[in-house]
Amino acid sequence: MATRTTIDTWYRKEDYWAIIIALGLILVSTIAFFNGSAKLLAAMAINVPGWSADFSKISGFLAGNWLGIAYLFGFFAVVFTGAGRILGYRSSDYLASFSVLFILSVVVTVLGSNQVLKDWQLETPLLALLVGMIISNTVKLPAWFQSGLRTEFYVKTGIVLMGATLPFTVILQAGPLAILQATIVAGITFASIYFASTRLFGLDPRFGATLAAGGSICGVSASIAIGGACRAEKEHVSVSISMVIIWAVAMIFLLPFLAKSLGLAPGPAGAWIGTSEFADAAGFAAAEAMADERAVKTFTLMKVVGRDMFVGIWALMVAFLSVTRWENKTVEEASRVSAGEIWRRFPKFIIGFFAASVFTTLVIAYLDPKLGTAFSKEVIGPVKSLRGWTFTWAFLCIGLTTRLKDLTSFGWKPLAAFAAGVAINVPLGYLLSNVLFVEYWLGVK
Known about the structure:
By secondary structure, this protein is an all-alpha fold. 78% of the residues lie in helices and 0% in strands. The protein has one domain (2-443). Helix 20 runs antiparallel to helix 21 (369-400).
C-alpha cells in the first residue's frame, strides 16, 4: 500500500517537477542543437546589457528583443502553471501571479543592469529582494497572488539547470572536500544552536533540533523535514523558518560585503557563502552579488553538493533521538524508524542537478572540440541565462513573502539561540574556505 501511495503522489512534489522542467529543457535543447534548430532557445535566453544614463540603449534593446521576452514568458508560464495545477494551485491564479512576477523580474533586471546601481552593489539579485520586500511591507498582496510565489520551486529548477553548466568532473573533484567541510560546519553549527536553545534558553529539545537544522543544513527545507521527523509543534517549525529567513536575508548583504571588503578571491568567497548561508535561494543571491561565475560554482559545490545532501541523514538521526529520548519511548519503538526516512526526506532535486551535469559532460566529451565549443555556446550558454531568470523569480519571491512585522512576533529566545549558531558558523566558514581549504577553492574555474 505504501508503494502504491508513493507511485500515486510523486507527481505532487515540487522537486520532481523542477527536475522534469529543467531536464526536459536541457534534453530538448540538445536535440534541437543536433537538428540545427536551437534558435528558439537562443531567442528565449535574454541577457540585458549594461547601460548608464542613456536610456535609449536599453529601450532599443527591449524593443528589438520583445519577441524573445514573449517566448521566455510563454514557455515558463506554460510549464510552471501546468505543474502548479497538478501540485494543487488554481491555474488562473497561478498564471496571473506568475505574469506579475515576470513583469517585475524584467523591471528589476533592467534596473540591475544600470551602471550606477551596479556601483552601489545593487545588481539584479539584491535589487529583486529589495523590491519584493518594499512591495510586501507597504502593500497588502491579494490572496490569488500567493499562488505564484513559489520560491523553492523556482530555485530548485534553477539548481537543476545549474547542473548543466557545471562539469561533472569538477563535482567529482570537489565532492569529498565539500562533504568534509559540510560535515564539519553542519555538526558544529547544529550542536551550538541546539545547546543554546535547550541549555541556555530552556526551549523544548524538538524545537531546538528544528532551529539547529534550519541553521546548519539547508534552511527552510531542513526546518520542515527535521520538524516533521521529531514531531515538533507547528509553531516551532514556523518560528524556525522565520529565523532562517531573517538571517538568510541579512547574509545576502553581509557576506558579499565582507568578502569584497576583505579582498577575497571569488572561489573561496563563494565557498564561504555556501558554508555560512542558510537557504539556497538567498545563497545564490549572495554568490551572484560577487559578480563572478566562479563564486556561483563554488557556492553550488559547497551548499548543494555538500550541505543539502545531509537533510535525509539528519532527519533519520533526529527521528531516532526524538523516539528514544524526547518522547520517552523504548529502543524497540525507535528501531521502527526506517532507513527509508533518508530517501523520503532527501531533496530529490539534487538528483536532477547531478543528472544534468553528467548529461552535458558526456555530450561534450562525445563531440569533437569544434562541435563541443558550439554546444557550449548554443545550449549551455542559453541554459545559464535561463537559470538566471529562475533565480530572479526566486529572489523576488523571498522579498514578496517576507513581512518584517511578522518576523518580530516570536520572542527573543529563538532569535538568540539562532544568533549563537551564526556567531560560530560565519567565522568557521571563513576559516575553512579561506584558510584551511583555500588552495582548493582557488583552483575551481
